[in-house]
Write a structure and sequence with these properties.
Number of helices: 8
Protein name: Dual-action ribosomal maturation protein DarP
Number of strands: 0
Family: Belongs to the DarP family.
Keywords: Cytoplasm, Ribosome biogenesis, RNA-binding, rRNA-binding
GO molecular function, one term: rRNA binding
Oligomer: single chain
CATH architecture of the largest domain: Orthogonal Bundle
InterPro entries: DarP, DarP_sf
CATH superfamily of the largest domain: PSPTO4464-like domains
Number of domains: 2
Largest sheet: none
Length: about 170
Amino acid sequence: MAKKKKPAIEEEIIYVSKSELKREAMQYHDLGAEIAGMAKKQRDRLPLNDELKEALVVADKVSDKSDAYRRNLNYIAKVLRTTENVDEIQAMIDIMLNKNNQADVLMNKIEKLRDDLIKQGDDLINPTIEQYPSLERQKMRQLVRNATKEVKAEKPAKSYKELFQYLKDAIMV
């Protein structure tokens, strides 16, 4: 009987440097510190497992004791390393922390639209209404007309502000 040849198994060895392991550990440590520094209401919105929630309760209790807090943060980092949904947690934190920045961008967009409406008048009202169907054509025309008069007469900007508020209410819904 002939001997069967066993196929050569080629194993791919992935070398991970000690520095890379330390950087990864520091990322988990920083993430844990960021979560521990959040308010409890913000933490409740995160998809944390029970072990992490318990560790965060302990972190709140020992936050005034520096060594105990540091050790607890190390433990939180260790738990995060074994947690499967770390990317989901990080994404939620990014959304929560970037919320104000996104709101600022939207407000700037609304202000620019208002200024363009006042400059261009009826030419821009129709495309704006097509883009945001919740806007009423008659009310838009009235607000733009009044705001344009106020700007030309350099009067207090009552309609100017009303137009902004109307656009904001329609766009943010």
